Amino acid sequence: MEIDYKKYRWFETRSGKIVVGGKSASQNDELLKLLKSKQKELIVMHTSTPGSPFSIILSDINKVSKSDLEESAIFTGCFSRAWRERKFSAEIHIFKLSQLSKSSLMKLGTWGITGKPEKAKVSLELVLTKQKSILRAVPEKTAEKKDILLKICPGKIDKVDMLPKLSMELKDKFSQEEILSALPSGGVSICKSHKF
């Protein structure tokens, strides 16, 4: 499906499917409206509480594997308010695009759902790796072990204040802007170093 995914939060699952999520309430709305207009059924995820991207797997739903679902659920949880609140797990709701609707009375970023979503509980931790030549924070199972640069978890120190340490751990291979853009909002801690 053709969509300018790089303007959103995105990553590529291990099987090569692109997953996109809004960076803000207005981007969530824009993304869902755009995908609704294409009239294709897709899988969508959101945390069970407010403050999360709507993450969408841009693939025919019959080709989405259990691993694609797990990786997307971890991504959704990590880029939600749960990470900023230093939680170590989050509950994710999984539904189809056709289950979502929006009325003119709903506030920015809010959508209604018909039927019950599936639920998944995920741990909040990510690894830094390169995807399509860009630094990304992705679920650990997404990346090959040899391609993992660093493992991160929610932490007390804001990502901006962690930049010098992260740059050093990443051997100064990435600009500060690249590092910040890859990370979830809020605090970060380094879980375990990986040597090159």
How would you describe the overall organization of this protein?
The chain has 5 helices and 12 strands. A 6-stranded antiparallel β-sheet has the order 1-2-4-3-5-8, sandwiched between helices. Strands 10-9-11-12 form a 4-stranded antiparallel β-sheet. 24% of the residues lie in helices and 31% in strands. It folds into 2 domains: 119 residues, no CATH class; 68 residues, no CATH class. It has 196 residues and is α+β, with helices and mostly antiparallel strands.
Keywords:
196 residues, alpha+beta, 2 domains, six-stranded antiparallel beta sheet, 5 helices
**Tally of discrete structural domains:** 2
Secondary-structure class: alpha+beta
Alpha-carbon Rg, integer: 16 Å
| Poorly predicted regions | none
| Global morphology | globular
Main sheet specs:
6 strands, antiparallel
**Residues in helices, as a percent range:** 10-25%
List SSEs in N-to-C order: EEHEEHHEEEEEEEHHE
Briefly characterize the structure.
This protein is of the alpha+beta class. The protein has helices at 25-37, 66-78, 81-84, 159-169, 176-182; strands spanning 9-12, 18-21, 43-47, 55-57, 89-96, 100-101, 112-113, 118-123, 126-131, 134-138, 150-158, 187-193. It starts with 8 loop residues before the first strand and ends with a strand.
